[in-house]
Amino acid sequence: SAVISQKPSRDICQRGTSLTIQCQVDSQVTMMFWYRQQPGQSLTLIATANQGSEATYESGFVIDKFPISRPNLTFSTLTVSNMSPEDSSIYLCSVDQGNTGELFFGEGSRLTVL
Amino acid sequence: QQQVKQSPQSLIVQKGGISIINCAYENTAFDYFPWYQQFPGKGPALLIAIRPDVSEKKEGRFTISFNKSAKQFSLHIMDSQPGDSATYFCAASMGDSSYKLIFGSGTRLLVRP
After folding, report:
1. Ranges in chain A, pLDDT < 50
2. CA pair distance A68, B27, nearest whole angstrom
3. CA B46 distance to own-chain centroid
4. Taking CB atoms and an 8 Å limit, are B106 and A41 in contact across chains?
């Protein structure tokens, strides 16, 4: 299975600032995704990170708030912009290595907004 | 219709007992049903998955039972061990968008020694 590294693993941020989370995979993958897991909650898909084109966002998530980059088949970033305390969550990078529907997740980036 | 309802929210089982977690769905287009296990501070890890063409799938101590007519599926953990203590999520997806998982709300399992 793919090894997925996320940075930072955790951060504490001030309201109104932005934070960029990086996701590095040890092999080339076609499908990369960003999920959000709010405290004690389930996982919600934010967007699909498309290599070489704009990300595909799910209902309730917009590019201005969560800009995503995918410059190549092993790397992606998610930025959480103009943060508020409601953005305090774990943000998880995920890949579908064999286009099988079997997702592998990184360990997540725990974000606390004060 | 896109929801996956999971129960119970939390579960305490004695070592050696059977842990049972249930999920229900409405969308009959769902055709892929995985279970994920998440330990504190870690990302979810795929545990076992099933497609609707079978009613049961077993991998070691973990079994998925699937009832297509009732639109329900469940995870059974036999001979539960303290190391199984984690949060378990059921999920569902469909067709060409099998990667777009709809997750249940999660079940926090505690296995007592």
Report:
1. none
2. 30
3. 10
4. yes
